[in-house]
Amino acid sequence: YRRVLSVIMASMLFKYCTFERGIGILRDRKIRLTQPSDFNDPFELHPEFQLMSQEDIAALPPALDEQGNPVPGQRQLTAEAMERMMAAVFPLSARLAPIHQQHPGAAFAIDNNAVGREYYDQNFGILSLSETHDNLLMWAHYADNHKGVVIGFDETHPFFTGSELVSGLPRLNAVEYNSKRPVLSISTRDTPQVFLRKSPEWLYEREWRLIRPLNETSEIVPRDGQLPICLFNIPTNAIKMLMTGSQMVASEYQNICNYCGATPDLQHVGIHHIQLSKESYALDTPPPLNEEDRQRLINGRVLSAKPFDV
Questions:
Q1: Cα pseudo-dihedral 36, 42, 44, 46, rounded to 10
Q2: What span, in angstroms and rounded, lies between the C-alpha atoms of 265 and 269?
Q3: Fewer CB atoms inside 10 A, N or C side of the chain?
Q4: Which residues pair with 210 in a beta bridge?
């Protein structure tokens, strides 16, 4: 069975989440792609950012003296370069203007790193997935101390494909673990490296990322003083498997089995209840519920049932 399971999972990626979030994805057919500033890693898409790098400056034409001769060591700031810098800085400047009116004479500095961070937050959402469904730390950190769920997605589904976001960056990618932070400028802010690089301390997550432009969002939920929640429609045929946590509350296990069993377009989803290994510090994945087990659960004969009201 383990060999069969490994073959089935070969083209799958997994999302660890709480019971509430997992059942919400199944019920609403929507999944959140998160802006980088809302991630739990403060370095997320937060490179050291320069408006113009040394390479950008070197690419500018040489400055000329009154006779039209190049001036050694000096470069000419072209209109195109100035336009790129102003386009990056303007959104922050516009927001500082009302503050300046309230505090006349106050000085406000433009933080280059804030300019870079805002660009990513306004344009891209990220869905973090994992190669593994049975990592002890991931279950503890992201699935409510083993009381939540892991959803298995078919990574070949069209939901995970599409045109490149930027040159050389497909929508679905493995994360690159590296201790060196990228240093970017206006001309290099779309380098694939910045979207995928994380510290090696996160290596245990074995993360893959689906990155999509926020203009494809199907629903935006505003939040006071925070970035909005951006939801994307997720087809149910992209969902292949559901793992329930080893510590999941019995009534919630009943609920999720009832819901999948009673919902026609979710009846293909295999439901596995994760168990603690008897031999090692590991998690076992038993075979999915068979049709008889599903029917018994739907009829409420296995666990104490309660209405699906999450």
A1: 100
A2: 9
A3: N
A4: 127, 172
Encode pLDDT of 247-285 as tens digits.
Answer: 999 889 988 988 988 899 998 998 999 999 999 999 999
Q: What is the pLDDT of residues 13-60, one digit of tens each?
A: 999 999 999 999 999 999 999 999 999 998 888 777 776 666 766 777
Residue 243 reports pLDDT greater than 90: yes
Structure tokens at 131: 């190669």
* CA–CA separation, 186 and 85 (whole Å): 7
What is the chain's percent helix, strand, coil content, to nearest 5? 40, 25, 35
**Phi, psi dihedrals of residue 82, rounded to the nearest 5°:** -65, -40
Distance of CA 55 to the CA centre of its chain: 31
Please give the backbone phi and psi of residue 226, each rounded to the nearest 5 degrees, phi first: -135, 165
Task: Report how far apart, in Å, the C-alpha atoms of 258 and of each of 80, 94, 148, 261 are.
Answer: 60, 52, 16, 5
Both tokens of 151, joined, read 């959803």
**Using CA atoms, how far apart are residues 307 and 262, in angstroms rounded to an integer?**
13
CA–CA gap between residue 208 and residue 205 (Å, rounded): 9
Q: Which of 203, 243, 231, 194 is nearest to 12 (CA)?
A: 243
Q: Is 129 helix (H, G, I), strand (E, B) or coil?
A: strand
Q: Provide the β-strand partners of residue 232.
A: 31
What pLDDT, on a 0 to 100 scale, did the predictor assign at position 101? 52
Cα–Cα distance between 224 and 226 in angstroms, integer?
Answer: 5
- Count H helices, E strands: the chain? 9, 18
Strand 239-244 versus strand 270-273 pairing type: parallel
